[in-house]
Amino acid sequence: MSPEHAHVLLTEPVPPIIEGLAPHFEVHRLWEIGREQAIEKAGRDIRAIAVGPKAVVDAGLIAALPALEIIAKFGVGYETIDVAAAARHGVVVTNTAGAPTEEVADFALGLLLAAVRQIPQAARYLSDGEWGPGRFFPLTATLRGRRVGILGLGAIGRAVARRCEGFGLPVAYHGRTRQAGVPYPYYDSPRSLAAAVDTLIVTAAGGPGTAGLVDAQVLRALGPDGVLVNVARGSIVDQPALLEALREGTIRTAALDVFAGEPETPRDLLAFDHVVVTPHTGAGSLHTVLEMSRLVVENLVSWFSGAGPLSPVPETPWRKR
């Protein structure tokens, strides 16, 4: 079998990825054949895994595929892949960093506006027939005078910051390290950042290192006029602490595109009429899904053509051999 027709295991039915892989590779559809059968029938031939948005690639699967060379993830986050195991086996992992940046940043500002100006609630007020002579939707909070803190100043965080500047909002940030050449004030902890702002936008990477980073202390520091926006990963926010903060008025409101236990609907969060919750759709435009799918396919095509991966993750760096 020539490299151009290498065996690829595709974990989930993402139509643009299926269409993109078909001309180049022998594709095995994991959701149709199952993990054990895939390993039994094609395990020794599979040289790549194309990973959909939700699938888990654990150390056991990586070890069971002795010919595996590359894992291409659909999405920026790759915490569902055991990258340490991949590195031990000499397997490169790629993601689609860059493709959804602008879309997610747009959505973050949309969520911020929706939460502060209560846009979904105003729409419901109208559709429920509440607006009429002498009846008006209650006055809302405003963006004017707000100070924004960005938790995680990666590509998406920087894109959010640029948009905030366009709205005339001062920006500060926290990340694992202070970044050179960044014009925004840096705070050395999420709590100190929250204390300095009244609007916290979460764009950090998911995974064990950021689990529960936004906890009760951070929410208390954000304060009673505080707005929390999360377009990153639900695991970053301590959800029980957030529920308590919303019940007690510790913060004003929250706008969440991600949450714990998704896709199970968070009934406790939906019980708050002033909270905005969306179904992890920040990157969910046709344009961006097509771009992300294209990058998954192009990473694999580039790898098997000998040019190397286009967007390897830091834990599995690649140097041209």
From TrEMBL:
InterPro entries per UniProt: D-isomer_2-hydroxyacid_DH, D-isomer_2_OHA_DH_cat_dom, D-isomer_DH_NAD-bd, NAD(P)-bd_dom_sf
All copies of domain D-isomer specific 2-hydroxyacid dehydrogenase NAD-binding, residue ranges: 109-282
Family annotation (CDD domains): HPPR
Chain ranges of the D-isomer specific 2-hydroxyacid dehydrogenase catalytic domain: 21-313
Keywords from the UniProt entry: NAD, NADP, Oxidoreductase
Recorded superkingdom: Bacteria
A GO molecular-function annotation: hydroxypyruvate reductase [NAD(P)H] activity
Coiled-coil stretches: none
Gene3D superfamilies tied to this protein: NAD(P)-binding Rossmann-like Domain
GO cellular component entries: cytosol
Matches recorded under PANTHER family: 2-HYDROXYACID DEHYDROGENASE YGL185C-RELATED, 2-HYDROXYACID DEHYDROGENASE-RELATED
Family classification: Belongs to the D-isomer specific 2-hydroxyacid dehydrogenase family.
Protein name as annotated: Lactate dehydrogenase-like 2-hydroxyacid dehydrogenase
Organism: Thermocatellispora tengchongensis
